[in-house]
Design a protein that fits this description.
Radius of gyration: 21 Å
Shape: globular
Helix content: over 70%
Largest sheet: none
CATH superfamily: MFS general substrate transporter like domains
CATH architecture: Up-down Bundle
Strand content: under 5%
Order of helices and strands: HHHHHHHHHHHHHHHHHHHH
Number of domains: 1
CATH topology: Growth Hormone, Chain: A
Number of helices: 20
Number of strands: 0
Distance between the termini: 22 Å
CATH class: Mainly Alpha
């Protein structure tokens, strides 16, 4: 459905409420989804202790999750373009509750792979960026980087809360009861979140033309939206795919195994979870700061700055050899944590900049496959590397190399794409 001047002037109440309320709802939904999914870092250690799995085996479910997340993104993008976020949020919440409750009863690796890797992952995707970015990018044209960064920061916020809270729960009431507590929490918040998005039309911009949050209708340059088939014939599409791939590799060669790494060095589990959780909380500020900065200094410069901070954080981890090096653990947690997800707003906003139009959800969904592949290979690869070498050193070096490749690919996106019609 194409957008007309009348569409852009529709009052906010007809499209589901003020833009800021929708932004808050998206932040809340993504916080829940990311917190529940990222808590697997704690369960990974619990599964190793309970079932005697190797770290490579314990990482399989997470790797499958990342593949499913990337593979299902085009499907989710197509659905949100047609149905809007409310229906997807309700369905996603139900799948998360089912997956969490079922995980409390598991006794075999394949059960975790199915429940976490497939059921919960699809549920989380229905509460993820692919669902909210197309709507928010149309509502916050001038502040697109800021709006997307606020939602993306929920990834770090959820991760920061989940690690220490779930570790506390696992240590206190056991991992099975903790899963049930998470299922109850998700069921409790699902309905209020869904109500925020009632009556949202995914094809319309809900901010009035006179609002400072959107471009004036008279000043907005007419443009023809990109379609998926057309976008995929440009090098920019595949450069974005590569950026997602390398960023996923760089992040997940480290993130899934951070707690296991710290415990292996000799740090107490709850202390390590608190330090890493504190570092992850900084992602809220880092992500919003990077996304907002990208509106002023450019997406490429902001993303490369974030890559640099991540590399410093991984470098600090490489220097940790004993449990008395508390400062290095804090530096690792802070530098790596502050840029966890910080490149996301720049990458996502860049995608919206380069390929605006009614099929942005589909385009973003396909490109996001790269992130899923990178995260899957990185998370499983780090566990496999440890099983072979009894160290995470090689995995951390691969993380740095991946971040460097991601920065190079992003810098190549400086010029806009040229349409190449079949």
């Amino acid at each position: 459905m194409s957008e007309t001047p009348e569409d852009s002037a529709i009052p906010a109440r007809r499209a589901g409420g003020p833009a800021w309320l929708l932004l808050a709802g998206a932040f809340g939904a993504f916080t829940m989804a990311s917190g529940l999914m990222q808590s697997y870092t704690v369960y990974l250690v619990a599964f190793i202790d309970a079932f005697g799995w190797s770290r490579g085996e314990a990482s399989i479910a997470y790797s499958v999750s990342q593949v499913v997340a990337g593979g299902s993104s085009p499907f989710v993008g197509a659905l949100v373009d047609r149905l809007g976020p409310r229906r997807l949020l309700v369905l996603g919440s139900a799948l998360l509750v089912l997956g969490l409750a079922g995980s409390a009863l598991v006794h075999a690796l394949w059960q975790i792979v199915v429940l976490y890797g497939v059921v919960m992952t699809i549920g989380a995707n229905f509460l993820g960026l692919v669902v909210f970015v197309p709507i928010l990018s149309r509502q916050f044209e001038r502040r697109r980087g800021m709006a997307i960064s606020v939602v993306q920061s929920a990834n770090g916020f959820g991760r920061a809360l989940s690690a220490p809270l779930v570790q506390f729960g696992v240590s206190g009431i056991g991992w099975r009861a903790t899963y049930l507590a998470q299922a109850a929490l998700m069921a409790l918040v699902a309905v209020p979140l869904a109500l925020v998005f009632r009556r949202v039309d995914p094809t319309r911009r809900s901010v009035p033309a006179s609002s400072p949050l959107s471009l004036p209708a008279a000043a907005a340059a007419p443009r023809v939206g990109w379609r998926l088939a057309e976008a995929s014939r440009t090098p920019h599409f595949w450069l974005l795919f590569a950026v997602y791939l390398f960023t996923g590799l760089g992040s997940f060669f480290v993130s899934l195994h951070q707690l296991a790494f710290a415990i292996t060095i000799g740090f107490p589990p709850i202390y390590a979870a608190e330090v890493l959780g504190a570092g992850a909380f900084l992602a809220v500020f880092g992500t919003i700061g990077t996304g907002t900065l990208s509106d002023y200094i450019g997406r490429e410069a902001a993303a490369i700055l974030a890559y640099g901070f991540s590399i410093v954080g991984v470098g600090c981890a490489l220097l940790i050899t004993r449990p008395t090096q508390h400062l290095l653990l804090w530096l690792h947690a802070c530098f790596f944590g502050v840029t966890w997800g910080a490149r996301g707003p720049a990458i996502t906003a860049k995608t919206a900049d380069l390929f605006p139009g009614p099929q942005l959800g589909r385009i973003l969904g396909v490109i996001t496959i790269g992130s899923g592949l990178g995260a899957a290979l990185g998370s499983w690869g780090a566990g496999a590397v440890f099983d072979l070498t009894h160290s995470y050193r090689v995995a951390f070096l691969l993380s740095i190399a991946s971040y460097l490749c991601g920065g190079v690919a992003f810098w190549a996106l400086r010029r806009p794409p040229v349409r190449r019609r079949a």
